Structures
1.
Amino acid sequence: MRMSWAGTYIEFRPACSEKRMKGRHTMQSAYAAFGDKAARLYEVSSRTNRGSWDTKFAVTAFDIQASALMNQPPAKVQKAA
């Protein structure tokens, strides 16, 4: 898609596809590093002091994981995982 602003054409597609690719790499890195526990919360009971992984996808957990792994090469993350 091209848009004109004051006679200057701006191409939007490359930026969108670049963001999409970065998002895909970040998601792959999160799953490579955390496996089936990616985007899951670990909750500890104060009564028993035992914990377990939540089964639901947690956006907050994924935000933290993604921000830590963003702009990291997927091969480097997979090697370290």
Note: Residues 22-80 form one domain.
2.
Amino acid sequence: MTSGRADSAFAQARAAGEAAVSRLARFNEPGRMSLAGAYALGYGTLGLAQIDDDGPDWYNLLDPLDTLMLGTAFPKRFASMYEFANARDRVAGAVARHRSRQRHRGFRTPVPADQ
């Protein structure tokens, strides 16, 4: 494959990827993000940063749950890994508080034995 053909194939793949991310962003509005949409947008953000070679170094440290958080915050860009970690920890704390309330609510309202 010649360099020109490789560049053309790369440009086509990039355009297809950007179109897919655009569709995801359009159908997964902020506040109405699906789990799949958030995960895909997180990986899309990481992929574009790798291709453009302009992502922060801490992107290499993200695990799948961090990638989900990155996609949930899309299109926000974090100034540092500390800003990202603080945002991630606030969300994790809110989820943990919500889950514990739901569990306690079930314990306070006993379900009759015949149901």
Note: Residues 3-108 form one domain.
3.
Amino acid sequence: MDNLKHIIESLIFVSGNPLSMEQIKSVVPGADTKEIKSCLAELINEYEEREGGFYLRHVAGAYQFRSRPEYRDYVTKLVQATPLRLSKAALETLAVIAYKQPVIRADIEHIRGVDCGGIIRTLMEHKLVRVLGRKDIPGRPLIYSTTKRFLELFDLSSLRDLPTLKEIEAFQKEPIETDGIAEDSQPPAGLDLIKGEAHAGPHPDTEPENEQENERDHDNGEQKADNH
């Protein structure tokens, strides 16, 4: 298709959220997946070579133009965005959920050693954590996982892009740059807890999607999760 690359570029530019392959195909039904992927790869390379003020990024399984982190201060002044501020405890809890998901509250509290009910609710309010379902054990506690918003915030294409244990060591020496977290709230806070736990990494079937699914059970099921 003529000008397919430019069509895709314009769609991503006007989209308020990361644009998925399925969304692009729905707007340009005449293009096949191979053509679209080829155009996206070309666009990513072009913007990377350009080294301008923004670039094209594959994030949360979709595509989005993002301003470069080095210009964040100027962008923030213009749009007056308020960075998401998370406490150390919230970051620790989020790290545990990210690496152990799907996970129930009792397992999170076993790793952290403290009650996490209020923190989990806060993370859900920020749309970083969602209810995946209920575990088929006595009390049927809620199962938690991260969301697409989590991937977007930490500039991750998928859960497989989470740092390995070896990379966690480096995180303790160097700060992590993210587009949406204030500089005084750095993600390594919770990674120490993960190091001491044997784990196999994120479950391959827990990619965050359909974020609203099962969240309606949260309020009714929280008491059961509390008593677990």
Note: The chain is about 45% helix and 10% strand.
4.
Amino acid sequence: MAINADAPVLQIELDTIAQEISYNGIPKVIPETYWKDTLSAFLYPLWDTDKDKLISFHWYTNGTYHAKRRKFLKNFKTGLFEWKDYEMEQADIPEANQLKEKLIEAFYLIDSLENEDYQKELGRLYAKQKIVTPFSVRLARNFLLSETDWVMVTDSPLDADTKAKYTLYRTKLRELTATSEFATQVENTKFPISPDFYTEIWSKDFPGIDYLTTPEQFLPLGKHYLKAFREKISYYLLQKSLTETAYFPTLLQEYENVRAAQLAADETPTAYEFANSDAQAKKDFLDKIIVEAQAELEKL
């Protein structure tokens, strides 16, 4: 099917229900303070009122737009009041263009705030990675494991002897958190030398000694790996923090839904158990997730 290059393309969209702006297909969530203090005041009264709520605005590359509103009306058939969506009458193009420009301005403002907050938080986490801690050793160990995951796939190009060395290397990496150094003087935690280091250097200086069979093949590399992985650790912690910040409200909302259903079950147990036989299992699962997530947060 042929594509018309001149066809109008959606440039900017405002979704007031999700409180989100999308510009050229890139969405940004509008912060609550900016929404209340700036955008709501700008939309009132031409675009949004107490009786007619703006729910969406779309501006296209050919200079056209459409807007949808929601009104609270009485349904005379049922006698009940309900929300009814309808297409808003076209305002003058200059007013619509002003709204479009305001939304683009808001998009770039939100983008700059996000980048500033991101960089500040990254810098804060980077500054924290100055001393060896049990957490930084664990992360460095995990990064070393992840970087050798490819060795363990069935179509790995390594020969059996090299693959056996990597298997032993990964086993020793997992065991380092059980060593006495990790428990008492974490900065002296000894990491196993890698199979490549053994093959290229160690075995040539000490021929006849098998891989990871002597204490000398375990080196106190905590500070080295902290320096090597400092930026990676900071990015990991930042992404972890952002993910948990976004995830927790959803998790808690789902938890409250299960909890509300459980309270309802206490009042009408027979009907509830019939309709929601797995609610307790869901509640137990969510309780477990919250406990585990909180434990992870406390490690930061």
Note: Residues 10-125 form one domain.
